[in-house]
Design a protein that fits this description.
Layout: E1 4-13, E2 26-29, E3 40-44, E4 49-53, E5 65-70, E6 77-81, E7 94-99, E8 102-111, E9 120-130, E10 135-141, E11 151-156, E12 160-164, E13 170-174, E14 185-188, E15 193-197, E16 202-207, H1 208-217, E17 225-228, E18 233-242, E19 245-252, E20 255-260, E21 265-270, E22 275-283, E23 292-299, E24 303-308, E25 311-317, E26 325-331, E27 334-341, E28 346-356, H2 371-389, H3 394-404, E29 405-416, H4 428-431, E30 437-446, E31 450-458, E32 463-465, E33 469-475, E34 480-489, E35 499-508, E36 513-521, E37 528-531, E38 539-545, H5 554-557, E39 570-575, E40 586-591, E41 597-602, H6 608-625, E42 648-650, H7 656-696, H8 704-750, H9 756-765, H10 778-792, H11 818-837, H12 840-851, H13 855-860, H14 867-872, H15 918-930, H16 948-954
Antiparallel strand pairs: 1-28, 2-3, 3-4, 4-5, 6-7, 7-8, 8-9, 10-11, 11-12, 12-13, 14-15, 15-16, 16-17, 18-19, 19-20, 20-21, 22-23, 23-24, 24-25, 26-27, 27-28, 29-30, 30-34, 31-33, 31-35, 32-34, 35-36, 37-39, 38-41, 38-42, 39-40, 40-41
Helix pairs in contact: 6-8, 7-8, 7-11, 10-11
């Protein structure tokens, strides 16, 4: 807090208290009504109320308010000057009131009061200028350096300038370049020029002669000089400090800038606070050598900073909220006072007093602190810190969070048809389908005091919840809530999952954040209905139930479609959404009679995802509830097979072409969106150009041709915009189809007989739901993951592949190679299927036989690359001696006809050597002499890039 305050000498509350004031609502001026006249304070609100005050003493009196009137329109600015040539007295000024569509010039007249009531003021309308464009601000001055007269210029919202002279002559002009944004325009009398802040954050200077002649000669002109300010500005003023130079004072968003009238920077002062308004003035006369430039800047923290040029000389604190306007004035009995106006209309006349702020320093606690007490307090602080940041035991932290907030989330397996579509704002095309809905219940009980709590319910695309968020603040212990929820279809899209997740994030009073999660699944009867099974289909998948705790019956997985004790072996399900009339999407599930196998078949990829999710999740849930360990309780180790196959295993088949077809359609739609957007941008630029040409034409020139072109261009713009909207609708449908296709691949890979770490890495790359951004499509965001697998994992580069990845360091959207991405995407699925197709015995015996081959035989006969063995030995413990076999943690499964290509300059595919240092250098040198063209000694066991020390030590560079 500042040691000094801005002392209040006089204050008054304006009539409008609704916060309709800004920096242009305050004016301090004299009108020449009496001999020993002081400054009048004029206040105009944006609601149209005009008030004139004349303080007489240090307290407000009713006689201080000389005029209060209501205008017919908002007041945008107040100005005082000699705006009319009919005034004979040189000391008399007139009042100009700027409104959105008119500027009115008034003569201020005084009316003597009777007895003790005091004098009053009256406004007499001198002239009024109306304009068609909406006004923004105004500037005044002796344009053209005329003497004894003042002209004024109105700045409109579209950047047009309207000049008015005293004899009634008015004309308009426009700044060159693109359409400007509304910004202050100021006039410098010494150089007879205007300073304008452009939309590109440049301060530009234009001479009055160029502006006044531009309309007559139709000639183009350029600014005299231009300087980049680099940020938006709040206000701008011109003061003359020297006879040979004027200064332009600019208050920016973060800096206070001063330039001379030739465009040269005088100083730039970086502010460590957020400014609100400022006022610059000169103490003394500019022709005197001792003139001082003083600036007062108000911050949003209600502090006043006084600067002499770039040096701060005083700082004071306001006891009221920060004002929005400030000026320096000479009122009666107080010269050089500070006049401020707050946002709520509080008008204050103050001064910089020297009285310090009275406060009392709290006495220090000088009590003796024993070692035991200090140790106890330190231990408490350490416990609080460990409680908030210690993540070594995540199970204990999760259990503690679950104890603080008890969350119970369940969804009924029964569907309902009584959904209130009007109340829930269901679209008409969805409501007419009369799709079923589901009900859920969310129970919340808080057992500890919390500062904040937020519940978020996440649903798949196409499904909506009746209440998706809930926020609570300052929750006492013992608070409980029950939220009944409705889940329903909001769009006619293919849904890729029935999983509903509830996230509860809360912050304790100590500031410790925690997050807990609950999951439930929607009933399949909300998306399917039973129908006649199909005997043949284009896509057939097979799952084998290997768990003894899961009965391989259809009733186990699809109880909502079958009666109790049903022994049905085949079940047909028809997809309800999107419910196309010309296309019936049916999926058939068949249970084998004499084995534990389930066959799922359909002609449509979009029907599989939710069915496979139900089968896999139900199997895992039943098996876990039988007492087995959960999957995530064990960290995957090197060489450990996928533990999911202990419960359920999938046949090694992935419908690659169907998935790639969905990706192709999605990519093509993304290209169409970009082309349509570029076409719209071109039409919009053409539309703006035609508008500008129409505005630049004079009234005498014919405008019919341009008007017709603008109308045709506008119609074309609307038509192309509707096309873009329709393409985006198609993109959303195709994105949901791609979601189903990728989810299908993930559920198949999740149950394949592969190494568990391979399954985890590939599943992390194939993320759902699919997301598209403005500058990056799903294919381009997937490219780095596929590129990683191409260089470090199952797609490691071979001779037939590209030397570089899909995305180079300087690649852009235009250089994205979708064909290469598609090829690598298909190769990933193909090699995963080939790996899962091999038997476990082959994966062990084949690499062993290859290692026992003599080196001499390998010299005469080329050694075939064992792709199955290489893929299975992904995380071997040690580099093998002898002839290496290229088997790193996620090495490629290479074709037999492909030969290895070694690029010693490419470090991305080599990984790093675990043994490094001076001792290991000799061993590596001997091993390198035996294998000069191989790189199996480079092993990256944890799929991580090498650290700086490991990388440079391998290269022979020692720190």
């Amino acid at each position: 807090m500042s040691l000094f305050n801005v002392c209040s000498w006089w204050s008054a509350q304006c009539g409008d208290t609704a916060g309709n004031y800004d920096v242009a609502s305050l004016l301090c001026a004299r009108f020449g009504l009496e001999a020993q006249e002081k400054d009048y304070i004029i206040v105009g609100s944006q609601s149209g109320q005009l008030s004139i005050y004349y303080p007489h003493a240090n307290e407000f009196d009713a006689t201080d308010l000389l005029l209060e009137t209501q205008m017919s329109a908002p007041i945008l600015g107040l100005y005082a000057g000699k705006f009319s040539g009919n005034v004979r007295n040189e000391n008399v000024n007139q009042l100009a009131v700027l409104q959105p569509n008119v500027i009115a010039i008034y003569n201020v007249q005084t009316i003597s009061g009777l007895a003790e009531y005091g004098a009053q003021l009256k406004l007499q309308l001198q002239t009024e200028h109306k304009f068609q464009r909406v006004a923004f601000s105004m500037c005044q001055g002796h344009f053209g350096q005329v003497k004894g007269r003042e002209f004024f210029c109105v700045v409109h919202l579209d950047g047009t300038l309207t000049f008015y002279e005293q004899d009634g002559i008015s004309y308009e002009c426009r700044f060159p370049g693109q359409r400007s944004l509304p910004a202050p325009v100021v006039y410098c009398e010494r150089t007879d020029s205007f300073y304008r802040f452009s939309a590109t954050w440049h301060l530009q200077s234009y001479s009055y002669q160029d502006l006044s002649h531009s309309l007559v000669t139709k000639s183009s002109y350029q600014p005299i000089w231009s300087q980049c300010i680099g940020e938006g500005i709040l206000d701008m003023r011109v003061v003359q400090l020297k006879e040979s130079c004027s200064y332009i004072m600019i208050l920016g968003e973060r800096n206070f800038i001063c330039l001379d009238d030739n465009g040269k920077f005088n100083f730039i002062l970086k502010l460590d606070y957020a400014p609100k308004c400022f006022y610059s003035f000169v103490v003394g006369y500019y022709w005197e050598p001792g003139a001082r430039l003083i600036t007062a800047i108000v911050s949003d923290a209600s502090k006043l900073h006084i600067y002499e040029e770039a040096n701060i000389i005083w700082a004071a604190q306001w006891q009221q909220p920060a004002p929005v306007a400030i000026q320096r004035s000479n009122v009666q009995a107080l010269a050089g006072s500070i006049v401020t106006l707050s946002e709520t209309g509080q008008l204050t006349v103050g001064y910089l007093g020297a009285r310090p702020y009275q406060f009392q320093v709290q006495p220090l606690n000088v009590e003796e602190l024993t070692f035991a007490q200090a140790h106890k307090q330190l231990q408490q602080l350490e416990d609080e810190i460990k409680e908030s940041v210690d993540i070594r035991d995540m199970d204990a932290l999760n259990q503690q969070a679950a104890d603080q907030v008890r969350l119970s989330f369940s969804i009924e397996q029964e569907i309902f048809d009584d959904l209130d579509t009007l109340m829930l704002d269901v679209p008409a095309d969805v409501a007419v389908k009369e799709l079923p809905s589901a009900k859920g219940l969310l129970k919340l009980k808080v057992r500890a005091e919390l500062a904040e709590l937020q519940l978020v319910i996440q649903t798949p695309c196409g499904v909506r919840c009746s209440q998706e968020t809930l926020s609570l603040v300052d929750i006492p212990a013992g608070t409980s809530r029950e939220l009944p929820l409705d889940f329903y279809m909001s769009e006619l899209l293919h849904v890729h999952s029935t999983r509903i997740e509830v996230f509860a994030s809360f912050v304790s009073h100590r500031g410790i954040p925690r997050v807990i999660q609950q999951t439930a699944y929607l009933p399949l009867s909300m998306f399917y209905r039973s129908c006649q099974p199909q005997k043949a289909a284009g896509i057939k998948l097979t799952y084998t139930i290997t768990s003894k705790h899961v009965p391989p019956k259809l009733l186990t997985f699809f109880g909502e479609f079958l009666e109790a004790e049903s022994e049905t072996q085949a079940l047909g399900l028809q997809l309800l959404c999107p419910g196309l009339e010309k296309l019936t999407e049916v999926i058939t599930v068949v249970a084998a009679k004499n084995s534990n196998r389930l066959r799922i078949q359909s002609d449509h990829v979009e029907t599989f995802a939710m069915i496979l999710e139900r089968i896999v999740e139900t199997t895992m849930q039943l098996d876990s509830s039988a007492g087995l360990l959960k999957m995530h309780k064990k960290k995957p180790k090197r060489g450990v097979l996928n533990r999911c196959v202990e419960r359920i295993i999938a046949a090694p088949f992935i419908p690659i072409q169907a998935i790639l077809h969905r990706a192709d359609v999605h990519h093509e739609t993304q290209q169409n969106i970009r082309k349509q957007t570029e076409q719209l941008e071109a039409l919009w630029q053409q539309f703006k150009t035609l508008q500008r040409e129409l505005q630049e034409q004079s009234e005498s020139e014919p405008k019919e041709t341009l008007t017709m072109q603008i109308e045709a261009n506008y119609d074309h713009l609307i038509l192309e915009g509707d096309k873009l909207v329709e393409i985006r609708r198609d993109e959303r449908r195709q994105r949901s189809d791609l979601n189903c296709a990728v989810a299908l691949a993930k559920w198949i890979i999740h149950a394949l007989n592969l190494e568990e770490r391979v399954v985890n890495v590939v599943s992390s790359v194939l993320s759902v739901p699919v997301e598209d951004w403005t500058e990056l499509s799903w294919e381009e965001s997937m490219a780095p993951g596929i590129d990683m697998l191409h260089h470090f994992g199952p797609l490691m580069r071979s001779k037939s592949t590209s030397t570089h990845g899909l995305l180079d360091e300087n690649s852009t959207r235009n250089t994205f190679d979708y064909a290469c991405f598609r090829r690598h995407f298909a190769t990933l699925f193909d090699r995963i299927v080939r790996l899962a197709s091999s038997s476990p015995g082959e994966r062990i015996t084949q690499p062993t036989a290859a290692m026992e081959q003599p080196v001499a035989d390998a010299a005469h006969q080329p050694q075939s690359v064992d792709e199955i063995g290489n893929m299975e030995r992904m995380l071997n413990d040690k580099p093998r001696t002898g002839k290496p076999n290229l088997s790193s943690s996620l090495e490629a499964v290479e074709d037999e006809e492909e030969e290895e290509e070694y690029d010693e300059n490419d470090l991305r595919d080599t990984g790093y050597r675990k043994n490094y240092g001076a001792a290991a250098a000799g061993e590596d040198q001997q091993q390198q002499q035996q294998t000069t063209t191989k790189r199996s000694e480079w092993v990256n066991e944890d799929f991580e890039l090498p650290t700086t020390e490991e990388l440079f030590s391998d290269l022979g560079i020692w720190w």
